[in-house]
Request: fold
Amino acid sequence: MVDLIKNGGWLMLPIILCSIGAMGIVAERFWSLQRKKILPPKLVAQIWRMEKDQKLNEQSLKRIKLNSPLGAILAAGLLNRHHGREMMKTSIEEAGRQVVHELERFLNPLGTIASITPLLGLLGTVVGMIKVFTAIMFHGVGDPGILAGGISEALLTTAAGLTVAIPSLIFHRYFDRLVDEYVLNMEEDALKLIDVMAGDREEY
Reply:
């Protein structure tokens, strides 16, 4: 492995750094985007029971807000529940934008890694081929070892760049889709809560 990295030339270093960054982001997003952390089950029903029992005070709303991203959105609406349906909806939408921004954290860097690593590999290919043609110019085609070194460098950087880029792109698309799904579910739960509070939906 070390020999492959050495044979790939200096452009292997940024590709390796990109791979480390991508692995770190993927591991962090898998940990942070667990469904139970984002959308605690039965949260809306629990909030409605607290409302019926008149236990929704400032302290309980703070706990709900810190509980999860869904809790943060619902708490924003609940804080304004005495100002009417439209104000609740507006507050939920504003909190939702902040929550979505948090859920999408590190996805841009992961997408950037997926985009630039093939380019780094292509740059390595170009550098390797330049070395090949330079060797041909000075030494002719009589020494296959010199030619093989440049071709090897070109192929190794291309392979390394694609090896990092393909999984990075797959995980970026996966997490992007997962965030969209969570946002849709949070919107549904928020609307349910608004409807229950407004009396437009049956109690839980």
